[in-house]
Protein 1
Amino acid sequence: MRDGFFTLTGVVGIEAADTADTLIVPNRPDTEVPRRPAVLDAVRRAHARGARLVGFCSGAFTLAEAGVLDGRRATAHWQWAEDFRARFPAVRLEPDVLFVDDGDILTAAGSAAALDLGLHIVRRDFGAEVAVSVSRRLVFAAHRDGGQRQFVERPVPDVPDESLAPLLAWAQERLDEPLTVGGLAARAAVSPATLHRRFRAQLGTTPLAWLNGERVGLACRLIERGEERLDVVARRSGLGSAANLRARLRRATGLSPSAYRRRFGP
C-alpha cells in the first residue's frame, strides 16, 4: 500500500482479526465518519472469542461504535472527550489519564500515550526487565503510570535548574534508602509544596506516587533476575517489608510475588 512517502508491504487482510490474540485498533482522523460494517463486525467477533482489544487515541471511537465499550472504562484524547461522551454515553470515559487497562480492553489517549500503553502491555506480557530494554531502544520513559494526566502544565521547564532530572537520577540510585518527600524536597532545595507542584507540572504525578512506582519496578526486576527471598527484594527496592511488597506488587501487576516469579522469573 503506497501513500506518497512510504510503502507498506506484507499487510494482511481484515480476516486476520479472526485469529489474532491481540487486536490493535489504530487512531483515525475522521471520527465523524462511521467505520465500515466489516471492521465493526471483526471487532465484535474478536471480543466475543476473548481476544484482547487495544485502541490507540481515536481508535476508542471504533471500539465504541462496535459496542464493546458499553459499561466499560476507556479513555480518548482530551480534544475529543466532549464529542465522545455525547456520542457514547454508555462508556465510562476517563479523559484525564494516559491510558486505561480494563482487562481485555485497553485504550490510550494519544500518540505518545500509545507508547505508554504499548510498554504497559510489554511489561504485562513479558515483565519489567524486557519493558525497560524496549524503552531504552525507543529512548522513551520506561514507565509512566496510566493514571497520570494527559498533558502537563509546563512540559518544558521555563528555568533549566527547575528540571527534575537530576533529582530523579539521584533518587533512582538510592531506592533502598529511606527516601521521603521531605527528603527529596531538601535535596532539591525547595519546599515540599514546591516539589509537589513541579512533579505535577513536569511528570503529571506526585513525588510519593513516582517513588512508589520506581520501587515496585525495581522489585519486579529483582524477582525477574532470580531473587527468591521476598525480604531481600523488599529491602533492596525500598518497600520495607514482604507484606508491603506483596500489596504493592499485586496493586501494580495484579499478581502475587510467587505468581509474578512463575510468569517472569528466570
Note: The two ends are 42 Å apart (CA to CA).
Protein 2
Amino acid sequence: MEMQQVRYFLALARTLNFTRAAEQSNVSQPALTRAIQQLEHELGGPLFHRERANTHLSELGRMMLPYLEQIHAQTEAAKQQAKAIKKLDNVTLRIGAMCTIGPALISDLIVKFQIAHPNVDLEVVEEGSVELMDMLTKGDLNLALFGLPEPLDVRFHGLSLFQERFVIALPPDHPLAAHNVVRCSDTHEQPYVSRANCEIFDHARRQLRAHGVQWKKVFSSERDDWVQGMIKAGLGFGFFPELSVTDPGLVTRRLIDPEFVRTIMLVTVRGRPHSPAVGAFVQQARAFKWPSGALDPMPRDPEDCDLEPTG
C-alpha cells in the first residue's frame, strides 16, 4: 500500500466522484482510477460501487475508511513533527551529565541555549559514566557531559570544553588550609571524607599508592552536600574537582606531586547522524566561555614560594 493510494481513496470517499477526486489530488482521472484498482486488489475486494450517477463506498470501503484515515493522519503528523524538528520547534533534547558535574558548571550554557532556542525542551539525566555510555549507545540520550581520566571508548566522540584540577576541600581551621598548595605526601594517613561517585578516585588511588600515600576513609556518601557538610564539621578532608565545591564554608587547596586534572567533554556517538537540536547545542557549547578553573591565591607562605598556583 502506497500513501498516494490512501490519499486518492480518501479524496474519492469525500467526493464520491472520480473527476472531482482526481482534481483535488492533482492527478489525472485514469491515474487515480488505476491507483484505486491497485488498492482494491491489495485489500481483496471493491472499495466503491461504481454506478452511472451513484458512486458510493462498498461494505469493505466503509470498513477500511477509518483505518486509512488514521494512516493518513499519522503520516501528516509525522511530517509536521519532522518539520518541527528541523526548525527546532517542540523538540526534546536529552543530555546526560556525570554525577560530579554539578549544575553550576552548565547552568549558564543551558540558559543561553534556551534563550537562543526557546522551543527546545532540555532534559538533564544524572548518572555514572557506565550508565551514560549505555544510554548514549541505545539512543536514550542525545549527548552527554563526561570528565574521565582515561581516553574515551572508540565508540564515542568527545568535544573538549574545559579542564579543571582536583583539589582538597578543607574547613578553614584545618592545618593544611594555611598552605597555598598541598603536596599529596602531606595528606598521608589523614582522615578522608569520600565522595562515593568520584569517577577519578580509582585512578588517583593508584597514583597515590605509587607515591607512598594512603588516605584513611572515615565517611562516604553519594551526596556531595553530605560530604561537604562532614568536611566543614571537621571530620576530614575531601577530594573534589575544583569547580564542584559549592559550600562557601570550605576552602580549597591545589593538590600537587602528583596533580590530578580532568577534561570535561561533550560526548556523542561516533558516526551517528544527529538532529539539528544536537548540532545547535554543540555550536552553543563551542562558543560558550567556559570557566578557567583558576584557584584564588592564598596569603604567601615562605615555605611554599616555589609552589604558587599558576592561573
Note: The chain is about 40% helix and 25% strand.
Protein 3
Amino acid sequence: MTSVIVFVTIAAMEEIEIIVAHHERATLRVGDVFLKVDTDQARADAEVAAMALAPVPTPEILWRNPPVLALAALPGRELGRPGKPSTASPEAWAAAGAAARKLHEAPLPPSPGWDPDELAENVDRECARLIANDVLPADLVTRNHKIAKAALRPWTPAFTHGDFQVAHIFVENDEVTGVLDWSEAAQGDALFDLAALTLAHQEHLPDVLAGYGADVDLDVLRAWWSLRSLRVVHWLVGHGFDPAPEVAVLEAQLF
C-alpha cells in the first residue's frame, strides 16, 4: 500500500472534510477546494483528459501536483445520495437526463473501456466470489446474473462517464451545474450511465428519460442495474462501504 502525504496551505485555515477514502483514492475538501489524491497517474491523466473533452460542465482545475488534483467546488448540491430519497425536482432529474444525452452524443474519448466479452468474464468472477465468500445468497446472485446477461450484447460506443451516479451530479435551479469524478470515463454503453443515474432511484426514471429524449431499451437498462450491483457489492464490502442500496436493487429485480 502506498502512503501519500498532502501539504495544504490555506490563508484562513479551514476544517478538512474527508469525502471518500479507500485503498485506491481519496478525496478531501478544504473550504471550497476539493483535493483528489490518486497514486495511479495513468488514471488521473485519463480523468483530466476526459474533463477537457466533456461537453457538460465539470469542476475547474485549480492546480495539479501529482498525485494531487485540486478542483474548485461546484455550485448547487448533489442530485441525490445513494440509497436515500432525492429531494431534487422532476425538472432537475430531466436536466440530468439531458446532460447524459449531450455527453453520449459527443466525440469518443480515447479510453476504449470494456467490451462485452471482457465484462462477461468479470461479472462471472464477481458472482463466483459473492457466492464463495457468502457475501450474498446464492439464489439472489444467480437470478440477477441471469438478468444481467441482457446487457452483455454488442453496443454502439458512446462517450460515457462510467460512474454517472446521483452524488456526482450537481444541480441548481433545475439545471446541471457540473459533473464530478471522471476517472472511469471511456467509450461504453450509453445505457450503463442511465442505469448508474437511476440505480436505487428507479422512481425517477421517467423524468430522466424525458430529459434524455431518445428511445431506450428498458430491459437492457434494468439488466445494467443488476450487472452494476453485482460488480460493486464485493468491492464496497472490502473497502468498508455499506452495499445496502445495491443489495436492495438486486432484491427488487426479482419481483
Note: Residues 1-12 have pLDDT under 50 and may be disordered.
Protein 4
Amino acid sequence: MAKRVAIIGAGCSGLTAVKCCLDEGLSPTCFEKSDDLGGLWRYTEAVEDRRASLYNHVITNTSKEMMCYTDFPMPEDFPTYLHNSKVLEYLRLYAEHFRLLQYIQFKTEVCEVTKSPAYSKTGQWDVTTEKSGVKKECFDAVLVCNGHHVDPYLPLESFPGIQDFKGRYIHSRYYKKYEEYRGKTVLVVGIGNSAGDIAVEISGVAKQVYVSTRQGTWVLSRISHKGLPIDMSLSTRCNFWISSSLPAGLLHKLNAKQMNGWFDHANYGLQPEDMSKLKEPMVNDHFPSQILCGAIRMKPQIRRFSESSVVFEDGSIVDELDEVIFATGYSVSFPFLDESIVTVNDNNVTLYKNVFPPHHEKPTMAFIGLVQPLGSILSTSELQGLHSYLLCLKWKPTLRKQQNSE
C-alpha cells in the first residue's frame, strides 16, 4: 500500500510536492485553505485572512527560463519577466498537465498536526482538518508548504511616536493599488523588493515619496550585459566557482565593484552598511531613476514620529506626512504546529538542510519553500520536494547517520 503524505498548502511549493510524491508512487493529499491554488501568486482585490497577499502590479524578479520547474518549461509566448497573473496561469497549466487537482482538497484548513500514538515506531502524524466539519486522519509523512509571507512583521515599538501619528499607516501586506496615494506625501519604511516596487509605483502619482532604510541595499536592473536577463548573466557555474574559490575580503570587493557598475550606490544613499553581507538585492529598473528625478528621496533610520511629521536620525524632518507604508517583512509562523514540533527563534527555524527539524526522532516531517534563495523559489522547492522523498520516506537511516556526523 502506498504511503500517505499530507501536504499543507497548494502554492508553488505545495504543487511540486504533490508531483514529487506521485512520481515516487506515494499517495499525496494536499490541503488548501482557500478556494483555489497559487498561494502567493493569486491576486485578490481584498486581503484574505491567513493567506499571502499581492499588490496589483507585481512583476517577477526572475526570468521565466530560470524560474520554471525543470520538467515543465514556460510557454514560449510568455514574456521573459512575468506579471503575477502569468505566474498563476503557469501554475494552473502545471497542475492541469500533471493532473494534480484531484489530489487537492480546497476550502480545507489544517487546524492541528500532532504525532500519532505510534509515532516512535512508525513516524506517523495525525492531521486535523476542518471543512464542513472537523476530521482527523493519519499520514506517514507531512510536507509543510504554507509559505512565509502571511503574518506581517510590524515592530511598532521600534518607531517611537507612531501611536501619535494622525495619518494612516499600514504594512505592505495591505497595499494593493497606487491610485489612493495620489497627491499625498508618503513614507515607505524598508528597502526590500516590495519597498522598491511600492515606492516606484506611488512616486508616479504622489506629491512626494520618501524611503527610509537602516542599512541600504544593492539594486540591480532586470537587464544585464547585451540585453540578457540579469539572473541568466549572474547565475552561472563559472561565477559560482569563482565565488567559492576567492578569499572573502576579495570577493566582497569584486561584488561591490560589480554592483556599482550600473550606478554608484553611495551617491544615491543606497550603499549597504555592511557590504560583506550578500543579502538578496533589490531588482528594480526604475528605482534609481526616480531618485535621480527627485520623485523618491532616500532617508536614514527613523528617530520618531509626531502627529503629522517624522524625524530621521540625521536630524532631517518631513512635515505634513499623510501615509506610512511599513515594508518590514514577515514573521514565520505555523499556527497548526506545537512548539515541541518546530520552534521559531528570532524569526528563524532550525532545519537540517533547510528542510527537516533535526530534533525529531523520525524524519517524517519536512518544510518546503521555507528559504529565501537568490533566484526562483519554484525550482528550489522542486529540489526540496525530491530531497524530502529520498530522506523522509526512503532513506531514514541515512538522515540519522548524517545528522550524527555533523
Note: The longest strand covers residues 109-115.
